[in-house]
Amino acid sequence: MTAGIEVRGLTKRHPGARPDRPALQDIDLEIPHRRFVSLIGPSGCGKSTLLRILAGLEGHDTGSVSLLGESPRRASRRKAIGLVSQTPALLPWLTVRANVALPGKVNRRSGKEVDPPDELLRAVGLEDAADQYPHQLSGGMLQRVAVARAFALRPDVLLMDEPFSALDEFTREALQYQLLGLWQRRATTVVFVTHSVREAVVLSDEIVVMSARPGRVHEVLDVDLPRPRDKDIVKGPHMHDLEDRVRASLQRAWKAGAAPDDLVPL
Ligand SMILES: Nc1ncnc2c1ncn2[C@@H]1O[C@H](COP(=O)(O)OP(=O)(O)OP(=O)(O)O)[C@@H](O)[C@H]1O
Ligand SMILES: [Mg+2]
């Protein structure tokens, strides 16, 4: 199988953090190309930090990281990585359409094929908002624009940090199916951060359960549901078994991590 993402013995300490409390410690991950992998774990366990390192936005202290056989910075320079960050960063002075078209414009000379912005906006149900500005949109609409923009350059690796967290249940479900459709058509590797056990099971081939303080990989669970994940499959009994397994693993991970200092009884 083609090398996708390889993380070996990665440790990351944020500047100013306690020396005994690295954000990430001894992370080993191997994600073959074209896999759909979710990261789930308690708040503060380092999911966003790991995603930013994979995106080439942050360095790390020890260990090694490679995407498609190259460093994250290099993969990022040749526009192989799409990132949807936890808080959507759109340019406020551009319309929704212009925000989605921007990666294609900026990278015109890279020769990469880009998707027309209107088509991407239709895929996330925002065709009517194309001429509006970010300040006129709701939080969930902003998230959907960010998802459309990340798809624009047809990245080989798509990193998504809780991209659907602000959406109502039905929009969220619709977008999960859109994402699976795009993932299958485009042969992309997806690393998807979520707090929703159900969302992780519906979408993923594998679920990486993390524990906190320091952030570590607690367990990697296989999701052996057939694809495409149609409605019958996600309503079936095996789906529930898998959800229970992930919940149990999360509970063990929660106990394994030291209790957060900021969670004291009122
Ligand atoms: N820029 C930074 N400087 C210092 N510490 C940071 C920085 N970014 C994150 N941290 C710390 O690193 C740890 C991991 O943060 P991170 O944002 O990666 O967690 P997370 O798993 O994404 O949490 P959540 O589920 O709440 O989004 C936290 O303890 C956080 O306080
Ligand atoms: Mg986060």
From TrEMBL:
InterPro entries cross-referenced by the UniProt entry: AAA+_ATPase (IPR003593), ABC_transporter-like_ATP-bd (IPR003439), ABC_transporter-like_CS (IPR017871), ABC_transporter_ATP-bind (IPR050166), P-loop_NTPase (IPR027417)
Cross-referenced Pfam families: ABC_tran
Sections of the chain in a coiled coil: none
Keyword Transmembrane helix: no
SUPFAM superfamilies on file: P-loop containing nucleoside triphosphate hydrolases
GO molecular function annotations of the record: ATP binding; ATP hydrolysis activity
Region (Disordered): 1-22
Domain of life: Bacteria
Keyword set, alphabetical order: ATP-binding, Nucleotide-binding, Transport
Domain ABC transporter: 5-237
Protein name (database record): ABC transporter ATP-binding protein
Protein species of origin: Nocardiopsis alba
